[in-house]
């Protein structure tokens, strides 16, 4: 990803997440595996809207569980390939946040493969980053009822998608990091301990980001 666009320097968090996030090709392999399992189970290619929804829900469930499993910093190296060096590279809470964002971006990349497989590789990558980052940023900053918050976040994500992708991605990385720091301080949790807040929080946040992404990709907003 070109890091010079928009005259904004990428953060350490952005540089690290870009390295550990999966590629569109890797996402395609994962989704093809789900498609194959559905075909073996039901005897026909999963191509209907209902089939895509089933696959999408499986993907969101998988990544939400992985996010929950990162509830302790000591679990990161074994749970997420490539994160073993995170603690040494970016340190403490920032490594925890990077791991959480990596999972959400990977999830969004797979969901794009389910619903928008015709896009080119770079477009898939940019879209996945914006969807994951915008959804996470808005949820971290949100107050109010769950349903109302999700609807508001969906609309804001659509607004982000209208901007220049690379500049928007840089801005969102900074917003996510700022919101994370504020939340962590408010909870009196040292930034060097744990992942974001807890396994249950990671699970809920990843699930909501998945729901927002599906809603945007299927235009149910």
Structural account:
By secondary structure, this protein is mainly α. The chain has one domain. Helices cover 72% and strands 0% of the residues. It has 10 helices and no strands. Helix 3 (49-69) runs antiparallel to helix 10. The longest helix has 24 residues, at 92-115. Mean pLDDT is 77; it is low at 184-196.
Binned strand content: under 5%
Average predicted confidence as pLDDT: 77
Question: How many strands in all?
Answer: 0
Q: How many DSSP helices?
A: 10
> Given the C-alpha coordinates, what overall shape results?
globular
**What is the first-to-last residue Cα distance?**
29 Å
Secondary structure: helix percent: over 70%
Unreliable runs = 184-196
Outline the biggest β-sheet: none
Number of domains: 1
Supply the helix-strand structural class. Answer: mainly alpha
Round the Cα radius of gyration to an integer and report it.
17 Å
Order of helices and strands: HHHHHHHHHH
């Amino acid at each position: 990803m070109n890091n010079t666009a928009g005259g904004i320097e990428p953060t350490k968090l952005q540089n690290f997440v870009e390295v550990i996030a999966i590629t569109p090709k890797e996402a395609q392999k994962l989704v093809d595996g789900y498609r194959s399992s559905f075909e073996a189970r039901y005897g026909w290619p999963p191509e209907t809207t209902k089939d895509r929804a089933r696959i999408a829900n499986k993907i969101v469930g998988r990544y939400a569980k992985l996010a929950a499993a990162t509830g302790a910093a000591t679990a990161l190296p074994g749970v997420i390939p490539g994160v073993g060096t995170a603690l040494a590279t970016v340190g403490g809470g920032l490594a925890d946040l990077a791991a959480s964002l990596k999972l959400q971006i990977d999830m969004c990349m797979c969901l794009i493969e389910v619903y928008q497989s015709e896009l080119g590789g770079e477009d898939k990558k940019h879209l996945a980053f914006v969807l994951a980052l915008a959804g996470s940023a808005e949820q971290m900053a949100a107050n109010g009822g769950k349903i109302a918050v999700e609807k508001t976040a969906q609309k804001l994500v659509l607004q982000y998608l209208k901007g220049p992708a690379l500049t928007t991605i840089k801005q969102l990385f900074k917003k996510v990091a700022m919101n994370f720091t504020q939340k962590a301080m408010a909870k009196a949790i040292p930034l060097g301990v744990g992942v974001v807040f807890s396994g249950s929080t990671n699970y809920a946040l990843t699930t909501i980001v998945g729901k927002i992404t599906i809603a945007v990709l299927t235009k149910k907003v």
